[in-house]
Amino acid sequence: GYRFEITDVDQFRNFIANRWHEFAFDHSVLADKGNRIQFLLKKLAFKKNYCLAADLCDELQISRSQLSLDLNILKEKIEPFNVRLEVRPNYGIRITGNEINLRLCIANVLYNEKSHFDQEVEFETQWVNNEIRNHVLAVFETYHYETSEIIFDNLITHLFIALERIKIGEPILMDSNDLIELKQNEEYRISSDIVDRLQRAFNISFPEDEKGYITMHLSGKRVFDDSSSNVVSSEVDQLVQKMIDRINYIFEIDFSKDLDLRIALGLHCVPLVKRIQYQLLLKNPLLEDIKKHKQAFLIAKVATEE
Q1: pLDDT at residue 224 above 60?
Q2: DSSP assignment of 139-197
Q3: Average pLDDT over the chain, rounded to an integer
Q4: What is the CA radius of gyration of the chain?
C-alpha cells in the first residue's frame, strides 16, 4: 500500500498550521451542503481578515447565488451565540462578536455537528489535538485532577480553538474582576501549567487572560467523587432542596429521604452552576437515549425550572 513519510518535521508542522486547507477537500465532499457550511465557518473563524466572496466560490466550486444561500444557513446557526456575519462590499465577509461567544460558537457548531467533513479535516487537527491531549493529561496526572472522557474531549476542543484564534491575533479579553476571582481557584494553577507546556510545544505566547479562560472551563468540568461531598455549598444544597420540593409538589413523588440522590444532585450542580455562570455549553452525546426515559426526563425538566 501507500503511506506518507515526513522527512522534514518543521516543514510538515508549518504545512499543517497554514496550508492544509488548500489540499484537504475535494468537490465530492463539498457538494454536500452541510459540509460547505462547516467549511465556511472554519474558513471564517480562523482568519482575521475578510474573505472575498469570489475566493470562497472558487474554493467551494459554487456560484455566487449558492454561496449566498449557504451563508444564510450559516447565519442562522451562529446567531444563537450572539455572533454575526459581517458583509462589506469590496471588502468581503467575516464573522464578528465577543471572543468568548465566538469560541463557544465554533466549538458547538463546527466540532459538535458530526459529518463526513470531520473525516476530511481529521488529518489537519489530529496531530495538534494529540499534542494538546498529551500535555493536558500530563498536567492532570500531576495534580490528580479527574474528569469524564466527554468533558475532557470538550476541553481539548476548546484548547485547539484557543490556539487557532491566538495564532491570528484574536486572544480572549476577560473582565479584570472575573480574572482576579478565577485566580483564586485551584484550577488556575493547573491552567498555568497547561499553558506553559502548550507555549513550549507550539512556540506561541498565551496572554494572561487565556489562563483565566482555561480556568473558567476547568472549574465547570470537574468530576467529584464521594470524598468531595463537602464541596457542596449551602447555596447549592438549598437549590437541590427546592428541586426536590418542586418534584414532590408537581408529581407527588417524595425524594426528600433519598440522601444519595441529594448528594449526587449537589455534586452535579456544583460544576453545572459554574458552567451557567460562565455561559459554557456542554453537549451530551447520550441526550437522545436519555430522552427515551420519558418520566425521568420530564421530572428533570420540571426540577431544572428552579
Answers
A1: no
A2: HHHHHT----HHHHHHHHHHHHHHHHHHHTT------HHHHHHHTTSTHHHHHHHHHHH
A3: 85
A4: 22
